[in-house]
Amino acid sequence: MVHSTLLAPKASGSAPAVALRDVRKVYGRGDGAVIALDGVSAALSAGSFTAIMGPSGSGKSTFLNVAAGLDRPTSGSVVLGDTELVHLSERRLTILRRERIGFVFQAFNLLPALTVAQNIALPLRLDGRRARRSAVREIAARVGLDKRLRDRPSQLSGGQQQRVAIARALITRPEVVFADEPTGALDTRTGHEVLALLRGVVDEDGHTVVMVTHDPVAAAYADRVMLLADGRGAGTLDAPSAEEVAERLTHLGG
Fold first, then answer.
1. Cα torsion 122, 123, 125, 129: sign
2. Residues near 188 by Cβ (< 8 Å), separated by ≥ 6?
3. Are 6 and 135 in contact (CB under 8 A)?
4. Of the candidates 67, 61, 53, 18, which has an alpha carbon nearest to the alpha carbon of residue 225?
5. E strand or H helix at 169
6. Cα distances (angstroms) measured from residue 184 to each of 21, 52, 55, 145
7. CA 171 from centroid of its chain's CA atoms
8. Res. 232: pLDDT tops 60
9. Is residue 9 pLDDT above 70, yes or no?
10. With contact defined as beta carbons under 8 Å apart, do 51 and 21 qualify?
11. What is the bridge-based pairing of β-strands 176-180 and 208-212?
């Protein structure tokens, strides 16, 4: 495949793409306090695909929200590239998320009144930048939807809608793409197609992908699986099979 300057992420050097150090996240106070993350540390390599897994209530979604700057940790540090997120103002955090991070959600979150092309270009428009038609067409071709640019989400299958969401996440050439259960609303075959696409944007385009999933088959697409249990790190698996992931989750109570 010809590597595209559009699709290539911005240079990130040799530092981790995302690093968390001794992160705690506590919701509520006093007797009602819930510790969602309890001293979690992680360094996620640039150009890697990491799956975050664990039993229900293990802290997976909180990890993603804190790592992506959507939520602030109670204590500890979160670094994106060379930027410490904890002390940024809300305005600076918003700009950072818009310019340097891509998001893919289970529910697609496309705007129904906009065309495929307009949905893909939305992050640039929100940032006050003009989206070149050629750039939108190129990113749409990367996800196999360059013939559907004038369609609206209601005219697409669930898998096609998720491909639009991935294209939208990539249009700003983010340093990291965070995916929260990206195949949760898809059937098995379509889910595999979306996972193969995410794998491709790591291997062929050099992006960094961090994915929360409950599915061992989905996790097997990742380079590394990071396990959480009760808000703490519970080990990692390198290039595991789905069976190996399922086996470890069984012992974690998931």
1. negative
2. none
3. yes
4. 53
5. helix 158-170
6. 29, 14, 16, 21
7. 14
8. yes
9. no
10. no
11. parallel
